[in-house]
Amino acid sequence: MEVTPQDLRNVSAISEVPEDQLQWLIDNSRLESIPKGGFIFQKGDAIDKLFILLEGEVDVKVDQNGNYKQVAKIRTNEISGALPYSRATTAIGFGETTRNAKALILPKEAFNELTRNHFELTEALVHVMTSRTREFAKRNVQEEKMMALGKLSAGLAHELNNPSSAMARSAVALKKHLGNVPEKFKRIISVKATPEQIDVINDTLFEKLTHRPENTMGLLERTEKEEVLETWLEDHQVENAYELTETLLDFCMDVDALERIYTAIGDRNFPTAIEWIENVLTTEKMVDEIQEAAQRISTLVSSVKSYTHMDSAPERTATDIRKGIKSTLTMMNHKLKQKGIVVEKYFEEELPEPKIMVSEINQVWTNLIDNAVDAMDQQGRLTIKVNRDGNFIKTEIIDNGEGIPKENLSTIFDPFFTTKPIGEGTGMGLEVVKRIIQQHNGDIKVSSRKGETNFTVCLPIE
């Protein structure tokens, strides 16, 4: 196959390049055939040649934890490989042909003559490079967002599952419990008691319900009190005393309280009265459990709403920085708990509210906190400080992990730089963070040593 300038007119990126420059490209290149399943480049190869795919297709794949993921496809009449002024040096993936292919290959050694003597061809190839970089950055930013969303979604699903399961269990238990109420009601209604006796029971019971005391007993103290209460109930002819003690003690209904009821109502009616009291307290406890679980779900939903700022227009809004950080911590609570990380918050009170893009700034907190958690071992310590510093709100996110190597500090915010394995990060997180901060006319700095890495974000108040 002999390649002509007319053949290269089918390559849209260089279709308008003068014919003499296309002929130079042909004269300084070699035509290479690659069979189906062959590699036009492999991981680790030097990026030292430009190629134009004249026939066939090439799947570009990267190795992610032992699995190959297709990240791009090079089609017929497309340009890839080395390009003028590109700083790429080593291939990070594989280029495998999906059918027999032919490629026109220009070695990088010819680039000096190319850029010196062939302006239109150079301009077209540089345009290919900028378009490729823009698409690559766009795709990786999207992947970074999807990774962050995946992490938050997994944690949020776990956090929502716990209270929703608790509600379901409590609802089933409450339904079963209420099924036993008619028999107990029949027994209590048959009790012949004076208004004064009923008042004693009501006063004692509803004092515990209305002003439910906080149960601060330790395990040892509670075990001892359960034994004492169970023995006391058995001595006063109460059947199934063991089953009643747990609920009675949950409401701090101790021997002294039961003595008052026993003295008022007498030994004959006392077992029935205690059974009814325990029944009311059990119902109250189950309702409390359902209410608490529902409140936890409501809090999580509120945090999601605050985190995404989904009920507001996408514009700068005067916002309390601390609120966004708290919502982010709630969203990431599952990951923090998994590692047993202690979070220390030092928030200055009555801070001014800078005008910010809330969702974007929350993405900053997510990336910085997520990186901090990844950098720490089990039982780590995350410290977050927020205070006013002149005309700025200064936020410090500090972890006690291994620290960032000194040689990486100068490139930590560069696009695609990452120390994480393939599949765990795209290297766009901190680049996105810096870009968002700069869009807010703010500043971000990092300092690191073993045991202390500090990312400091300053956002202008005005």
UniProtKB/TrEMBL annotation:
<feature type="domain" description="Cyclic nucleotide-binding">
    <location>
        <begin position="13"/>
        <end position="114"/>
    </location>
</feature>
<dbReference type="GO" id="GO:0004673">
    <property type="term" value="F:protein histidine kinase activity"/>
</dbReference>
<dbReference type="InterPro" id="IPR005467">
    <property type="entry name" value="His_kinase_dom"/>
</dbReference>
<dbReference type="InterPro" id="IPR003594">
    <property type="entry name" value="HATPase_dom"/>
</dbReference>
<dbReference type="InterPro" id="IPR036890">
    <property type="entry name" value="HATPase_C_sf"/>
</dbReference>
<dbReference type="InterPro" id="IPR004358">
    <property type="entry name" value="Sig_transdc_His_kin-like_C"/>
</dbReference>
<feature type="domain" description="Histidine kinase">
    <location>
        <begin position="284"/>
        <end position="462"/>
    </location>
</feature>
<dbReference type="InterPro" id="IPR000595">
    <property type="entry name" value="cNMP-bd_dom"/>
</dbReference>
<protein>
    <recommendedName>
        <fullName>histidine kinase</fullName>
        <ecNumber>2.7.13.3</ecNumber>
    </recommendedName>
</protein>
<dbReference type="Pfam" id="PF00027">
    <property type="entry name" value="cNMP_binding"/>
</dbReference>
<dbReference type="InterPro" id="IPR018490">
    <property type="entry name" value="cNMP-bd_dom_sf"/>
</dbReference>
<dbReference type="InterPro" id="IPR014710">
    <property type="entry name" value="RmlC-like_jellyroll"/>
</dbReference>
<dbReference type="Pfam" id="PF02518">
    <property type="entry name" value="HATPase_c"/>
</dbReference>
